[in-house]
Specification:
The chain is of the alpha+beta class. Helices cover 44% and strands 16% of the residues. It contains ten helices and ten strands. Strands 1, 2, 3, 4, 5, 6, 7 and 8 form an eight-stranded mixed β-sheet that branches. Strands 9-10 form a two-stranded antiparallel ribbon. Strand 2 and strand 3 form a beta hairpin. It starts with a helix and ends in a 19-residue tail after the last strand.
Length: 316
């Protein structure tokens, strides 16, 4: 009788143990879908990550009023006059020249501080002579007269200049990574990414894309720019192709005259940055529709600008 009771107790314990094991296994199995879901969850595409990163930190501004224009001029003074010493400092602390009255200025606003993180401008030819700054100063540098902007006015020409990113933001754009470290590590061996995402100069790219949007809005076929060859080579890695139209000149370092086609830029832009370009264009489109150049309000297709009295006189 005692032996039978002992056997019964052991059997009950085994049943309880098996029940506990079954419950433990069930709990583990029930968590498997969640684990697998987290493990295989679809990560946002890289192009979306870039858009999210940028627009969560920065705002794009087309300088349509005097206050916004002064933001661009002040930033240019900070970079060109104070940091780079390219120009003389001005009492006004505004770097303005005779071309600004027929220019479109754009800048990037840092959301958390309200500071300007970079600026760029697009100069339109004057209706009287069609000359752009590059041709005014360095016409001899062009390899062929047919490449001069004044000979292509019917096609729609402009000049992109005065790109300026303050020192603190030049540092920030290379210290602040677009993606978390673990995601960057996975992308290093991704053959679909044609450039080093860790060294993405997103501020400079955004400024050139803003200028491109202005060109497209105004139906410009050619945009000229005088720039360092190393910057042109760097932009090429992202699908932004500047084509040489002249010889290197000595102007605050070595500079080369280049030309680009806005429509070609959009078509040849790295696939990873196409979504970024689209977002940039959509973001500033309302401001482009309200853009004023000289005394003219434009909705598009403006080839020339009328120059009213210059607000601030300064050397070009």
């Amino acid at each position: 009788m005692i032996i039978k009771t002992i056997k019964t107790i052991k059997t009950i314990k085994k049943i309880k143990a098996i029940g506990n094991l079954n419950r433990a296994v069930s709990r583990k199995l029930s968590s498997v879908p969640t684990v697998l879901s987290n493990l295989f969850a679809k990560q946002p595409p890289l192009d979306e990550e870039i858009v999210r990163f940028f627009f969560s930190r920065y705002q794009l501004v087309v300088a349509n009023d005097e206050k916004d224009k002064d933001v661009s001029f002040k930033t240019r003074h900070k970079v060109y006059c104070e940091e780079m010493k390219f120009e003389q400092t001005r009492a006004s602390a505004l770097e303005v020249d005779k071309y600004d009255e027929r220019s479109v200025n754009c800048y990037i606003k840092h959301l958390s501080t309200g500071e300007c993180a970079g600026t760029i401008r697009l100069v339109l030819p004057h209706k009287d002579n069609g000359a752009l700054p590059l041709e005014d100063k360095f016409s001899d540098a062009f390899s062929c007269p047919s490449l001069l902007p004044s000979n292509l006015l019917s096609d729609g020409v402009c000049e992109i200049s005065r790109l300026a990113v303050p020192r603190e933001f030049r540092v920030k754009q290379f210290k602040t990574k677009v993606l978390p470290t673990e995601k960057l590590a996975k992308l290093k061996n991704d053959s679909n990414v044609k450039f080093n995402i860790e060294q993405l100069p997103y501020l400079s790219i955004a400024l050139y894309l803003m200028a491109t949007s202005v060109c497209l809005h105004l139906d410009m076929s050619h945009a000229y720019v005088l720039m360092e060859p190393k910057l042109a080579r760097r932009m090429k890695a992202f699908g932004i192709h500047f084509n040489e139209v002249g010889e290197a000149i000595s102007f605050k370092g070595q500079r080369v005259p280049y030309r680009l086609s806005p429509t070609t830029l959009v078509n040849e832009l790295s696939s990873t940055l196409k979504r970024f370009q689209q977002e940039v264009h959509q973001c500033i489109q309302p401001s482009l529709n309200e853009m004023r150049i000289g005394a003219t309000t434009t909705t598009a297709n403006v080839s020339f600008a009328e120059t009213p009295e210059v607000r601030v006189s300064a050397a070009a």
